[in-house]
Amino acid sequence: MAETLSIAVPPLPWRRIVVGCGMAAIDFVATVDAFPKPDDKIRSKRLKVLGGGNAGNALTCAARLGLTPRLISKVADDTHGGYILAELEADGIDISNVVICNGGTSTFSYVIVDNQMKTRTCIYTPVYPAMVPEDLPRSSLLSALDEAKLVYFDGWLHRTALVIAQQAAEMNIPILIDAETNKSGLNGLLDLASYIICSEKFPQEWTSIPSITYALVSILLRFPHVRFAIATLGEKGCIMLERSIDDEGSDIDETDVENLLESLKMRVDKDNVLPSCVSSECMRLCAPGVGTISGRLLLGTAEIIPSSEIVDTTGAGDAFIGAILYGHFLWTQHVIRSFYLR
Q1: Which of 9, 83, 136, 181 has the fewest C-beta atoms under 10 angstroms from its C-beta?
Q2: SUPFAM superfamilies this protein is in (predicted)?
Q3: Residue 69 — left, alpha, or beta (φ > 0 → left; ψ -120 to 50 → alpha)?
Q4: 295 vs 283: CA distance, rounded Å
């Protein structure tokens, strides 16, 4: 059986500091009628220069939703670096822990937006010299994490990220990992993760299991401290596999998680153009040949947007991460209130 979730949004807690570590960039976004073929020369319809980078985008979203973000990243003292920092600061992001190197180049990306297919292709050049743990003094690290309620990593700057994640774990600060692709050093971060957000392709690529739901079960079995894993599905919404607390639902017969997903899809209101969410009850979820966990499966739908209103999908996944960061604070506030109202 599944139930439709209706969530009332309470006010945010006063202490709402989130720390993000990862890429901050400048994007040169060129819109074209159709993606070029090899050796083509085409003319752009328009060109925009915007702030970008996974962490930069996600924290910008979080700031606009009312959180207090702090960014740990690295830029050069070039024109691009100045633009990146000015835009982040204007959106209310604390940039005091962004390392500025003398010389070198800041991260920049060329983004080609295909007007015909409504897709985007990114070609990025990372910051040089790359960020290393020695760039961030321990005093700065502790200052950045002071009073933080959540730490988010976009998977870039992996050597520095691991040092920060280890310190956050020692301080019992929850850790959210964006597993967009299987980047170098990602496994070390996943070992410390409290929450995992991944792309549609990642679960199957990382586990070599063809079913996305079975792959999510495998991920939660591999990382026993992970509370939930979410796979984003683009216009199809997202799937969330949440581990239950204290083996809630463990006394119920096992249910094949792939079959459960299909039953949730049947409960989605196809006439509703707004985002919605359906959830299973807590139960024993099995993936044949993989294992079983106690938890629940949630299916979230995406807003149905007419194609005429779609500009492009640049930064869409990062905006989703920003919304999850915001949702974490709402959920934490709800838990605290529920505890005191008992």
Answers
A1: 9
A2: Ribokinase-like
A3: beta
A4: 6
